Amino acid sequence: MNDLRARFGRRLRLGMIGGGPDSWIGRMHQGAAQLDGWWDVVAGVFSSDPARSRAAGPAFGVGAERSYGDVADMIARERERPDGIDGVAIMTPNDTHYPFAVAALDAGLDVIADKPVSYDAAQARDLAARARSGGRLFAVTHGYAAYPMTRLASRLVCGGEIGALRLVQVEYIQGGLAAKIEDGPQTTRIRWLFDPERSGLAQVMSAIGCHAQHLACFVTGRNVTRVAAEVGTVVPGRRVTDHVSALVEFEGACTGTFTAFQAAAGAENDIRLRVYGERGMVDWSHRECSYLRLSMHGEPARVIGRGDPGLPAEIIRAGRSPRGHPEGLLHAFANIYAEVAQERMAIALGDERPAFVYPRIEDGVHTMAFIEACLASHAAGRWVDVEK
């Protein structure tokens, strides 16, 4: 792939939308984009306040002349430059993802966006249509699907290693909303999260549930076809949902369970996936993200580590350190950025399009349809189909 970069002749140029200096996600995107040398962050709109945005650029190494006051100004002025941006990274409040993505796609830019990609499934489908018609790449930062060991899990499951699928269990548990923090002065910067009009159809799904759903679909290679869900709030007086539990059915009539819960006192950031087949199972936990447990029926359990000898080449490439040296979410994000860049360069050079598996806008469409089905199921008290 170094030959690809050499033939292309330069790094891709990225404009950030959101992620100001006080935001950890901004540093995550910047570091991931630049980690492997595929992108340079050269422009940005770092705050909804124009003055703060212009002042924030130098903290990211962005010159004052390319630290813009709003997204429309950045896109217009970058289009006039011979060294203008090739794509944007969107990490703003949820209600702005769709309009900013539309603006970028319509300007001929690739998009790397945080989840959820839109407010609802109709908007997500519109983004997918715009990306297709314009020949643009649109990645969604479901970083959990970009760890070496979740990609190995997908390879094993989809390759039939554990046999025909019987059960999928996925859960994402957090404790950050265990107390009613939304009225405290310390939440001013994130108060939009507790406004249902801004955070999305279901806050817990926009925040973490979409990651769990996407991880289960990615590893199994199957979308969800129908759900029977309970959606609600456990903290009195809270206006947004903080938990969703569901029975789910995947393509191929494989059954499963889904849990997303943000009000679990004492919990940190715990996402776990178990997939059971007729011959065995795989088990991955974010707490031990560099390892995958493979248990075949009647055989000793095996723990596979990132960097183990004999792993497939694409799994080795997804890691950067030998076994036992910790890697994490930054490196998973970097895998997404690197793959988007390589695909864009390959297209520009007329090479064969690489078969990368990073999360795309079509995954975002299914996520939004899944969320809508969960809400409809809870309201109706019955199983509801997930729209295709």
Would you kindly provide a written description of the structure presented here, covering whatever features stand out?
The chain is of the alpha/beta class and 388 residues long. The chain is built from 12 helices and 14 strands. The chain has helices spanning 2-8, 24-35, 50-56, 71-79, 97-106, 121-134, 148-158, 196-199, 203-220, 313-317, 329-349, 361-380; strands spanning 12-18, 39-45, 87-91, 110-113, 138-140, 165-174, 224-232, 243-250, 254-261, 269-277, 280-285, 291-296, 302-305, 384-385. The protein has a 9-stranded mixed beta sheet. Strands 2-1-3-4-5 form a 5-stranded parallel beta sheet, with helices on both faces. Strand 10 (269-277) and strand 11 form a beta hairpin. Helix 1 (2-8) crosses helix 11 and helix 7 (148-158) packs across helix 9. 48% of the residues are buried. The model has no long low-confidence stretch (mean pLDDT 95).
> Count of helices?
12
**Helical fraction:** 25-40%
Write out the strand line-up for the largest beta sheet, numbering strands in chain order.
13-12-11-10-6-9-8-7-14
Rounded average pLDDT: 95
Topology readout:
Elements: H1 2-8, E1 12-18, H2 24-35, E2 39-45, H3 50-56, H4 71-79, E3 87-91, H5 97-106, E4 110-113, H6 121-134, E5 138-140, H7 148-158, E6 165-174, H8 196-199, H9 203-220, E7 224-232, E8 243-250, E9 254-261, E10 269-277, E11 280-285, E12 291-296, E13 302-305, H10 313-317, H11 329-349, H12 361-380, E14 384-385
Parallel strand pairs: 1-2, 1-3, 3-4, 4-5, 6-9
Antiparallel strand pairs: 6-10, 7-8, 7-14, 8-9, 10-11, 11-12, 12-13
